[in-house]
Design a protein that fits this description.
3 domains; 15 strands; disordered N terminus; three-stranded antiparallel sheet
Amino acid sequence: MAQECMLKVLILSAVVAGVASQGCQQPNGYFADSQQCDAYIECKDGVAEKQLCPDGLMFNDKLTEFPRYPCSYPQEVECGPRTRTQPAQSSGECPRQFGLFRSASGPDQCSSYMNCVGGKASINQCPEGLAFNEATIRCDWPDLVPGCEGAVFRFQCPGVRVDADLGHPRYSDPDDCRKFYVCVENVKPRMHSCGVGYVFNPDLGVCDEPQSVPNCANYYPKAVLDAIQTLKQFDNRLL
């Protein structure tokens, strides 16, 4: 019995050694290439095969559970010393075959972005008042996106920097009663909007009933206000 157990241990050790020699740390799984961030080793039943992520994606060494797809956007991957990547395969407007990129040109280049799939770009638009941040692959405040500070708005803050402890001042949008701007440190505008049925009250710095703001009393058609009032009554009956 002891000899049989010893033989099994030797066989298992030989299998593990054979897997390791082929680049497999386990019989099944994905393992990072030591130098290239978009390359990886795929192991199936102890057989290692070098694979390459699609152009624009990187191997995510946190997604090693087999057979889960192991490639992610570069912003989601920490490459560390794996600095090499495959040459870019640009196509049309896409700098790489896959990825999210800020639009290269046009008046909306800060607020619009391209979703490149297989080298074909579809244009998407950030919500109003936001700019696309390539570093985080999400829509963000314009003052947090290099090159887009103030590019999204017609509005400019007064420009006199104030301490954050004093609170960030708020200003009405000159063209839309629902919108207002929070000026971070009084120099970085961030656009907000009141809920439907309300307008911004510059005297109070809050969203308010239209009739409380003289210049915005007629902002909503009467039919809209009547519909909102009906919904409020309906909600109250449900409470």
